[in-house]
Amino acid sequence: MADNVPQPDIIDARDGADEIEQSRAPLMEHLIELRARLMIIVGALAAAFVLCFLVSAPLYNWLTLPFVNAVTAAGQETAVLNYAPLELFFSRIKLSFFAALMASFPITAWQIYAFVAPGLYKSEKRAVLPFLFAMPVLFAMGIALVHVMVLPMVLDFALGIEAGTEAGAPANYNLFVKVGEYLSLAIALMVGFGFAFQLPVVLMLLGQAGLISAEFLSRNRRYAIVIIFLVAAFLTPPDPMSQIALGGTILVLYELSIWGVRWTQRKRGPVAPETSAG
């Protein structure tokens, strides 16, 4: 009879094996769910890429409108974009991929949110959801600002500085713009301004989490200005007009973020002090 009684070390080994199996099952479920959501993200990106490539020619023509208007305003009859063999094709692929990333972003963001949402409290879910919808809208606003104001301003500056012929100059100067270089300039500006427009979202989320305050942002404004223009110089092409435009835009967004963080503080209310138990 005594031989049939489980020994303590055997019981501990069985308990340890049961715990491993119990932890392994949720882990596998999370990995399976993660794989399924990644497949949805990749599928949405692939479908968006195909659709964007089908309309890549008119989409690129839309991007060239600021260039055409700047050339026409400079007094030239026609706007010419030059390209090397296959450069136009690969530029359309690059543009399609960039457009597909933006088009599929709502699906990507929702899949990421759905994966982490079970680990959030209801108050945290309510706090994150509005910003989840605001991010693509703000990114689109940054792109619209580039197309309507910033890119024409940069091109006017380039044509005025580089394309003008001085009186009595020994040579004529002609601005030589290639398809790929123009696309890289437009995408760099759109990405820079698109991410710059996310600043209110980031700061308001940090403020809602209690990590920063409006007073902190106001007190450190002078350091923020230096960092803002350093970031603008890093995100934009090496011309002063685009750097000043992006730096000024981020600075305005920083001031709006201070107001937004102050509003979230009032909405959240004062944080109750911690009390020690016992």
From TrEMBL:
Pfam families per the UniProt record, alphabetical: TatC
Location(s), subcellular: Cell membrane; Membrane
InterPro entries: Sec-indep_translocase_CS (IPR019820), TatC (IPR002033)
Membrane topology: Multi-pass membrane protein
Superkingdom as given in the UniProt entry: Bacteria
Transmembrane segments: 38-60, 95-116, 128-150, 182-211, 223-238, 244-261
Keywords: Cell membrane, Membrane, Protein transport, Translocation, Transmembrane, Transmembrane helix, Transport
Main location as per UniProt: membrane
Coiled-coil stretches noted in the UniProt entry, renumbered to this chain: none
PANTHER family named in the record: SEC-INDEPENDENT PROTEIN TRANSLOCASE PROTEIN TATC, SEC-INDEPENDENT PROTEIN TRANSLOCASE PROTEIN TATC, CHLOROPLASTIC-RELATED
Similarity comment: Belongs to the TatC family.
Subunit structure: The Tat system comprises two distinct complexes: a TatABC complex, containing multiple copies of TatA, TatB and TatC subunits, and a separate TatA complex, containing only TatA subunits. Substrates initially bind to the TatABC complex, which probably triggers association of the separate TatA complex to form the active translocon.
Purpose of the protein: Part of the twin-arginine translocation (Tat) system that transports large folded proteins containing a characteristic twin-arginine motif in their signal peptide across membranes. Together with TatB, TatC is part of a receptor directly interacting with Tat signal peptides.
NCBIfam families recorded: tatC
Name used for this protein in its record: Sec-independent protein translocase protein TatC
Species for this entry: Parvularcula lutaonensis
